[in-house]
Design brief:
The structure holds 3 protein chains of 3 kinds.
Chain A (H helix, E strand, L loop, with lengths): L18 H24 L2 E6 L5 H8 L13 E3 L7 E5 L2 E2 L2 H11 L5 E5 L1 H5 L9 E3 L9 E3 L6 H25 L1
Parallel strand pairs in A: 1-2, 1-3, 3-5, 5-7
Antiparallel strand pairs in A: 4-6
Chain B lengths: L4 E3 L5 H10 L3 E9 L4 E10 L2 E10 L3 E3 L8 H12 L2 E3 L35
Chain C lengths: L2 E6 L11 E7 L2 E8 L19 H6 L6 H16 L5 H29 L3 H22 L8 E2 L2 E2 L5 H27 L1 H7 L7 H6 L5 H4 L30 H25 L15 E10 L2 E10 L4 E7 L1 H4 L1 H8 L7 H7 L4 H5 L1
Antiparallel strand pairs in C: 1-2, 2-3, 4-5, 6-7, 7-8
Helix pairs in contact in C: 2-3, 3-4, 3-9, 3-12, 4-5, 5-9
The chains are: A alpha/beta, B alpha/beta, C alpha+beta.
């Protein structure tokens, strides 16, 4: 009986004010931060907003989710809530009414975030840039990181654009960490 | 070539629309365009069994047109668009967006009515 | 009873496009629904002043990316009628082939979004997987998956070679087989029936009075299809409008499913009856003058174009009335009296294309 009960010395509890305690705590928080940072890059969540598009670029974006192109195997999910999202995909031109919605969505997303503008209309207004109600491309309202051309942009190009956006994400995360 | 459209004076518009409704026509849409500096026109398109009937109404710019939405409710949607895009006003609209269907009130000065090449008579400020 | 006003949209995970509804709710039932549109309004009808009548074909195709070839066809038909041009028979058959393929891909897209609206994500993936076969046909024959730009004034730009013809027919056989497999799920699955049968009922009289068109009208028993007007190759093909009498979301889904199978048959007929050696376009000279009205049957309903020319290279007016524009008043009447959880399903059963509505 006595052999089974191991004679272990109880661990000495560190005092919260001591330096050793603070070091251990910082190391644990650092590990969690690295895990989250890696998860963001390895499995970013998308928010897709159609800003005024003819639907061509939208259905190509949705086609990326479907079994032939399948970005879900990379862990990318299309979410509806801006507070859950890392990447904002915008299609279509900006007009006077939806520029306010676009700005609100961008402001609600938490940092760090990446904006990808898809299609000729989101870049500069496309074929409609001379229309009266059109303000122009998406970069008139919010800062854009990646531009994907095409009318409409093909799914392969959209996936390339998202991957390029993820590389920018890494830089932004590094920048945020240095600034902390 | 021109389409077959019955020229209708503005006073007879409502009466003709009521007769078409009783004959079983369905409302397709209306087209509004400007003819020259002084006049605009609206063409109403109706249909029964894929046979079309059109009514053409010409009027000087600035006139208030009677809305046909009490007779054909679906017309309110097309008439509100015409208010936004050509600045023509209607009386008796069932649901009236007052020109804010496509544009918010604060943006109205930045975007002029795009389909009128000539200057348009502005309605009196309330 | 407490009444609240709930905003539905403009950014909503169910509908890919921005549209806003102000729903007045009393105790879970919708009492009033007012739409607020304008998020997609580009005002492209004013581009007639800046682009000439040949360039407008490209503008008009981008009204909606899903039915783009039909917009192009309707516009070209209008200009051809104004200028008195008659296109070769082969071009009419080719236009029919591409537009019926558009109808199949549009309905498959709609079925996918519809299944996603009540949470049936695996069915959404199945339908879009089948749709990719049609996209491959588009890309191989016309060069682009979505906006195919094959219509020109006077005919079409490209021909379909005999090898492509064989390949298209065998691909359509595969599509038909896959659809027959899914037919049982769409018609008899318990969950789908519970969420669609008896929901969003539109009676025949109301549909006629409010000007519904397309599957909205044919699902309520109105026997109207603009293909009966006899444009393109339809006078030579053997078909009938598809009508259901339920008036609810289930009936509209049935209409669309049967139309897909019918369109596969129409493409096969078109290939059989197409003249083999002929030109695909005629030369066009002159400027359009006068006014004309053309109508085609798009996947969502009847689309009307009013074109007015004055003899110069710019048109005077190009008025587009799309079927989604006409289907908005019926939607408002269908939403009144329904429960809040059924609102996305009812709005989707109309197949809203907001960019068509607002142009």
């Amino acid at each position: 009986m006595d052999e089974t009960v191991k004679n272990t010395k109880p661990q000495k509890r560190l005092k919260p004010s001591s330096d050793a305690f603070k070091q251990v705590r910082e190391a644990k928080i650092g590990l969690i931060r690295k895990l989250i940072a890696k998860a963001r890059i390895k499995s970013p969540w998308l928010l897709h907003f159609d800003c005024g598009s003819c639907n061509g670029c939208d259905i190509e974006t949705l086609a990326c989710l479907t079994p032939v192109y399948d970005i879900e195997r990379f862990g990318i999910i299309n979410v509806g809530n801006p507070k859950h999202a890392d990447i904002l995909l915008v299609t279509g031109t900006v007009n006077h009414r939806n520029k306010k919605v676009l700005k609100k969505l961008y402001d609600q997303m938490p940092d760090p975030k990446v904006v990808v503008a898809i299609g000729a209309c989101a870049l500069s207004g496309g074929i409609f840039r001379e229309c009266d109600n059109v303000v122009g491309g998406v970069d008139r309202v919010i800062p854009v990181d990646v531009f994907v051309p095409g009318c409409p942009g093909k799914p392969e190009a959209i996936i390339d654009g998202v991957i390029l956006g993820l590389q920018k994400f890494v830089q932004k995360q590094k920048g945020a960490k240095d600034g902390d | 070539m021109a389409i077959e459209a019955e020229d209708t004076p503005l006073e007879q518009l409502m009466w003709k629309v009521v007769t078409l409704k009783e004959a079983g026509y369905r409302f397709l849409t209306l087209t509004a365009l400007e003819v020259d500096e002084e006049t605009a026109e609206i063409i109403y398109h109706f249909d029964i069994n894929l046979q079309m009937k059109n009514l053409r109404v010409r009027f000087p710019k600035g006139t208030k047109i009677p809305s046909i939405s009490p007779i054909y409710f679906a017309a309110f949607w097309a008439e509100n668009e015409v208010i936004d895009l050509l600045g023509i006003t209607f009386s008796g609209l069932k649901i009236d967006y007052h020109g804010t269907m496509y544009l918010d009130a604060e943006d109205k000065d930045t975007v002029k009515t795009p389909f009128c090449r000539y200057t348009f008579v502005k309605k009196e400020a309330e | 009873m407490v009444s609240t006003v709930i905003p539905f949209g403009p950014q909503h995970p169910v509908l890919p496009e921005p549209v806003h509804f102000k729903l007045k709710i009393e105790d879970e039932k919708v009492v009033d629904a007012i739409p607020a549109v304008g998020f997609v309004h580009r005002g492209l009808e004013c581009l007639v002043a800046k682009k000439d009548f040949v360039q407008m074909t490209q503008v008009v195709e981008r009204v909606c990316g899903i039915c783009s070839a039909m917009h192009g066809m309707c516009y070209c038909m209008g200009i051809e009628e104004m200028m008195g041009i008659e296109i070769p028979k082969k071009a009419a058959f080719l236009r029919t082939v591409w537009t019926e393929l558009h109808r199949i891909h549009s309905h498959l897209l709609w079925f996918g979004l519809y299944a996603d609206a009540f949470g049936f994500e695996s069915l959404f993936m199945q339908f879009w997987k089948i749709r990719e076969k049609i996209m491959d046909i588009n890309e191989a024959t016309a060069g682009s998956r979505v906006i195919i730009s094959v219509n020109v004034i006077g005919g079409v730009k490209r021909d379909i070679s005999p090898e492509h013809r064989q390949w298209i027919l065998s691909t359509l056989d595969e599509v038909e087989e896959a659809l027959r497999d899914l037919e049982k799920v769409v018609y008899e699955d318990y969950t789908i029936r519970k969420r669609t049968v008896g929901i969003g009922v539109l009676s025949k009289e109301k549909a006629y009075e409010l000007g519904a068109s397309g599957p909205m009208a044919r699902g309520s028993g109105i026997d109207i299809d603009a293909r009966s007007l006899g444009y393109a190759a339809f006078p030579d093909l053997d078909w009938e409008p598809i009508v259901e009498y339920g008036g609810d979301c289930f009936a509209r889904a049935k209409v669309r499913f049967r139309e897909m199978l019918q369109s596969i048959g129409l493409v096969r007929q078109a290939f059989q009856k197409m003249p083999r050696d002929e030109e695909i376009a005629v030369k066009v000279t002159g400027r359009p003058e006068g006014e004309v009205i053309t109508r085609v049957e798009q996947p969502r309903g009847e689309c009307l174009y009013y074109l007015k020319g004055n003899g110069s290279k710019n048109l005077d007016r190009c008025r587009i009335r799309t079927p989604s524009f006409a289907n908005f008043p019926p939607i408002m009447s269908m939403l009144i009296g329904c429960r809040l959880a059924d609102v996305p399903v009812i709005i989707l059963s109309m197949d809203p294309c907001i960019s068509c509505t607002e142009r």
